[in-house]
Amino acid sequence: MDHIFTLGRRSTLKGLGGFALLSLGGLSACGFKLRGSVSIPYKAILISGRPSPQLRYDLERIISTGTNAKVVTNGKDADLILEIVSEESTRQILTYTSTGQISAYRLNNRVVFRAFDNTGAEVIAESDIYVTRDLDFSTATVLASDAQQQQFLESMRADLALQILRRVATLGRVAR
């Protein structure tokens, strides 16, 4: 009896594998592309300025895993210097309940940056990118709401890092 169950499970897994391949084929046909992959026209990038440790980590992670470039620590080795001018995270009250308690927040994250090539020429003028997320809040689940807010902020920083690198990818300059 165990043998029949194993065969049934194997055929089910093979069927699911075929379904997964067909699904991925359908996604690629419609133009779907993995979100984190960015082709940038530079081989070595220096991250300077005042990024938060979390934003620096996200930028370095995306550059090293999702691009054809590497992060360097010396400006002489860099093809591109990405300067984070400022980073700001704010939270505004979005709605109140009928009893006057807060029921939702809007999280805002803003990064101001610019980029220079290895000759010092500005390739991206000072620009800013915003990301916002709305967060429901309940006084009954304050700890869960705090954890959810931290998850949202981490996700927002990763989105900002990816958007910055996508802006770099649009430059179209061939790396030396």
Report on this model:
By secondary structure, the chain is α/β, with parallel strands linked by helices. The chain has helices at residues 2-29, 53-66, 142-169, and strands at 44-49, 70-72, 80-96, 102-117, 122-136. It is built from 3 helices and 5 strands. It has a 5-stranded mixed beta sheet. Helix 2 (53-66) crosses helix 3. Mean pLDDT is 80; it is low at 19-24 and 26-34.
End-to-end C-alpha gap: 65 Å
Strand-residue proportion = 25-35%
Uncertain segments are 19-24, 26-34
Question: How would you describe the shape?
Answer: elongated
SS-based structural class? alpha/beta
- Helix percent reads 25-40%
The main pleated sheet reads as:
5 strands, mixed
Task: Give the averaged pLDDT, no decimals.
Answer: 80
Element-level helix/strand string: HEHEEEEH
Tell how many strands the DSSP assignment holds: 5
How many separate helices?
Answer: 3
Oligomer: single chain
Radius of gyration: 22 Å
Q: Main sheet: which strands, in order across?
A: 2-1-3-4-5
Could you outline the blueprint of secondary structure elements for this entry?
Layout (H helix, E strand, L loop, with lengths): L1 H28 L14 E6 L3 H14 L3 E3 L7 E17 L5 E16 L4 E15 L5 H28 L7
Parallel strand pairs: 1-2, 1-3
Antiparallel strand pairs: 3-4, 4-5
